[in-house]
Automatic annotation (TrEMBL):
InterPro entries: Cu-oxidase-like_N, Cu-oxidase_2nd, Cu-oxidase_C, Cu-oxidase_fam, Cu_oxidase_CS, Cu_oxidase_Cu_BS, Cupredoxin, NO2-reductase_Cu
Name of the featured protein: Copper-containing nitrite reductase
UniProt binding sites for Cu cation: 111, 151
Cofactor: FAD; Cu(+); Cu(2+)
GO cellular component terms listed in the entry, alphabetical order: periplasmic space
Pathway this chain belongs to: Nitrogen metabolism; nitrate reduction (denitrification); dinitrogen from nitrate: step 2/4
Region described as Disordered: spans on this chain: 313-341
Family: Belongs to the multicopper oxidase family.
Subcellular location: Periplasm
SUPFAM superfamilies the UniProt entry points to: Cupredoxins
Listed EC numbers: 1.7.2.1
Catalytic class of the enzyme: oxidoreductase
Length: 502
């Protein structure tokens, strides 16, 4: 009976998720009384256009080679997957013009960047989606140094999956490292002659015990995809990272996929120095496995030695990913041994500058129960917040200056990496236990059975999404909005611009 239930659950998930990317749901916004309120369009920051760093990003379809034998039809920014790296200095004014040469509307969301609401790139909430043949210019100041990324927020479960993402790096004024490398992780669903694909290799991995491994919280994603990539390449086509002996190397790691990555550093010691664009200080050196949740960014630093080694995927579900680290002049073949097989926990990263002291009292409290149920969403599976799906989820209504506490609980069997736009939050407790070292993030992966208490200050007026960054979950309902009182959006979901924010 248990095996039958397990099979039916897995089969149901596969059936539902294969169809959820292409269908369109009707989203009807709540009508608001706009009298006396401020439009989101009036909240833009002043940008010095004369001194701004300017970039042009074109959304277009291209054939992309994942490796020498695998070509896909990808949606790209400037013809590559990932899109062109945008790198600026802290304090720079930035202007990015998006040209849309696709047949569908697109946007750019600046993931993790603290900017004004009109530049957030969420169709139907902060702008209208950019129509085929049209353009839109994003203007903002790169206020905080850190590792960020940009991606489409129009039908994002489909468009990010097809390749519409790229790195956005804001460099520190004073650097602690000699070399700076960016790694963007993703996964793809490819067919193969041996029946691997979703219904072959991955399903076999699940039935052979993969559900009991580290990937069990994102088993739905592991059933959908069978090929991992880094910087748009897979297998032997992954470009090795070239380093010099004794130099300090910073790796900026971004997870653009829908499954968490669990990385082994082959016994090489490293230190976490950044998380979600915030500095991590005084972290201990470690060789433990490192998890990176969907949408999360983690910076690590290590001292290059004379030997060559690899960063590898450590999930026990049959995933295969290997990134060569090559020291110039090394003869190679000196791979390390004795890696720590335990996972580095958030609380072990190091210290972060807290947003609040221990005695802060919230002005607004919101209980966020994360669930999964059968419903009317995209073939039958609904991902819910307090038993509701977007746009029917209850908003988090705030006044500017409010201290907001959100109590998140995951009652489902799947991971939910929850991401808040436009704000950083402080994690106060996990599973009811107060953290000794507060963490400051914009995304927290809430695993099955876990609960977190977070607090943030409502200091950036507008309408800001708070959603799961497994974008299939978001597309099927796990979204709410932090709405500032006295602010309204002039944009509508769906309508003639086909605004679909997830």
């Amino acid at each position: 009976m248990v095996k039958k239930m397990l099979f039916l659950t897995i089969f149901g998930l596969v059936f539902i998720l294969t169809g959820c990317q292409d269908s369109v749901k009707e989203l009807i916004p709540e009508k608001e009384n706009q009298k006396g309120k401020t439009s989101i369009t009036e909240l833009a920051d002043h940008v010095n256009k004369e001194n701004a760093k300017e970039f042009t990003i074109t959304a277009q379809e291209e054939e992309w080679h994942l490796d020498q034998n695998t070509t896909i039809n990808a949606w790209t920014y400037n013809g590559t997957v990932p899109g062109e790296e945008i790198r600026v200095q802290q304090g720079d004014s930035v202007r990015v013009t998006l040209n849309n040469e696709l047949d569908e509307p697109v946007t750019i969301h600046w993931h993790g960047v603290m900017l004004s609401n009109p530049m957030d790139g969420v169709p139907g909430v902060t702008q209208n989606a950019v129509q085929p043949g049209k353009s839109f210019t994003y203007e903002f100041v790169a206020q905080e140094a850190g590792t960020y990324w940009y991606h489409s927020h129009q039908q994002s479960s489909k468009q990010v999956d097809k390749g519409l993402y790229g790195p956005f790096i804001v460099e520190e004024k004073q650097k602690s490292y000699d070399a700076d490398k960016v790694l963007i992780f993703d996964e793809w669903a490819l067919n193969d002659s041996e029946g691997g694909g979703m219904m072959g290799g991955k399903m076999k991995g699940m039935m052979d015990g993969g559900m009991g491994g580290r990937g069990n919280g994102d088993m739905d994603t592991h059933m959908m995809y069978n090929t991992l990539s880094v910087n748009g390449k897979t297998g032997n086509s992954i470009t090795p990272i070239q380093v010099k002996e004794n130099e300090t190397v910073r790796l900026r790691m971004i997870n653009a996929g829908y499954a968490k990555r669990t990385l082994s550093f082959d016994g090489q010691e490293y230190r976490v120095v950044g998380n979600d664009g915030k500095a991590v200080n005084n972290g201990d050196k470690t060789s433990k496995l490192l998890e990176i949740a969907p949408g999360e960014r983690i910076d690590v630093e290590f001292s290059a030695t004379s030997s060559s080694w690899t960063i590898e995927e450590a999930n026990d579900d049959g995933s295969d990913l290997s990134i060569p680290i090559q020291t110039k002049g090394s003869a190679g073949g000196e791979n390390r041994s004795g890696s720590d097989s335990s996972v580095l926990e958030y609380t072990e990263y190091g210290s972060m500058t807290p947003l609040f002291d221990d005695n802060v009292s919230p002005d607004v409290e919101y209980n966020m129960n994360l669930g999964v149920s059968m419903g009317m969403m995209q073939g039958g599976m609904a991902f819910t917040i307090n038993d509701e799906t977007f746009p029917d989820t209850e908003n988090i209504n705030v006044e500017k200056g409010d201290i907001v506490r959100v109590n998140m609980t995951n009652d489902s069997m799947l991971d939910h990496p929850m991401h808040l736009h436009g704000h950083h939050f402080q994690i106060v407790s996990k599973n009811g236990k107060k953290l000794d070292k507060p963490l400051v993030k914009d995304l927290i992966n809430v695993k099955p059975g876990e609960s977190y208490e977070i607090i943030f200050k409502a200091n950036n007026p507008g309408h800001w999404l708070f959603h799961c960054h497994d974008l299939v979950h978001a597309n099927n309902g796990m979204v709410t909005i932090v709405k500032y009182n006295g602010v309204y959006s002039p944009f509508a979901l769906e309508g003639r611009f086909n605004n679909q924010p997830e």
